[in-house]
Amino acid sequence: xxxxxxxxxxxxxxxxxxxxxxxxxxxxxxxxxxxxxxxxxxxxxxxxxxxxxxxxxxxxxxxxxxxxxxxxxxxxxxxxxxxxxxxxxxxxxxxxxxxxxxxxxxxxxxxxxxxxxxxxxxxxxxxxxxxxxxxxxxxxxxxxxxxxxxxxxxxxxxxxxxxxxxxxxxxxxxxxxxxxxxxxxxxxxxxxxxxxxxxxxxxxxxxxxxxxxxxxxxxxxxxxxxxxxxxxxxxx
Length: 236
Description:
single chain, alpha+beta, 7-stranded antiparallel β-sheet, elongated, disordered N terminus
């Protein structure tokens, strides 16, 4: 009886050692799997961040173009009707350095009786093609019929203008502000190609940016690996 009772003991120990071997192998593989999972997660996070940045850039460009178009429209179309000012683009350097070519001159109607020497006015010259000129008043005289005549000069010109202009009506456009470089932008915006880009390109870019933003949000809503999906209640 004692011999039979001692035989099973080594056999049982041998079986336990054989079953323990797979467990050691699994523990050895687990670190490499974790490293690969971390690398995949890092790459996915980088891609999501890049898509998010691209979506924000596209959306910002679209919004910027729409805001620019709206501001130009308000400044050129709505402002003069509501606030009463006028705008003109300086084409020459006769008033440099105060007003340079491409600058926008903002004027307001001012009673002729209120203008004085030194003011800058925008008016039609009385000779040649009667073009619009923006120059500084150097002398004011009264005409025989009670009107007002002015002698003008460009700040950058060597001499006075070779004409004397009689101001017609009750008001004259007097310069109150100068906006640098905007005249060049306005001329560019009046080009058919640029106008079409603003009208159709800006909304298209904005829509693309919104779609990209939605796509980025949806792509991030994924269930992490190893996390079980919640089961719906059976209702029993």
